[in-house]
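Student:
Attend to each token:
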Amino acid sequence: MTYQELYTEIKTKFSRNSHTLERFAHIEGVIRRAVRLNEIHQLGLPEEDVKIASLLHDYGKLFSNNELSLFLDVAVEQALPGDYPELFAQAKTIWHSFIGAMWVKRDYPFVSDEIIDAIKYHTTGKPNMTTLGILLSVSDATEETRTYENIDYFRALTEQDLMQGFKEILIDTIRVVKARQLFLHPLTKDAYEFYVKEKLND
């Protein structure tokens, strides 16, 4: 399957309703952003890998959390010990990432393990991420349809220094999660401590 064939198929799948169509607009923004950042920073990642990872990163968003919850048991069974599978039930914000990665592997077996890994952890982050994983996470956070506080700062920073931008987005994500008293996934805490080199107080 060529990239263009894959793109057409995914676009058709995301045409199921207005919500998924809006999600596909975000996906297209991530594709453009990731390709641009890969070029700016001369990361040397194959453009097709960058585009496939971006195209498929929200594959799990084709379905609602109620639909995704039906696959939780399988996701727990297939999880690595370091994924904190015992917390999956309460970690609804990551269901689309972990279950989506599982579905990509099932539906598109030609997709590489590196791309699957980037999709799986693009929401939480984790220690020792691949360059593709960091690029996908940053592109997801800074693509053109995002409108959160300080987005222009993060866009500019990630174009100047990808790694510093990744760290500051991680710090800001944790700040927002704590301020809103939301569930902070321990993988995000682990990523913070790995990259920012500080212990994070609970």
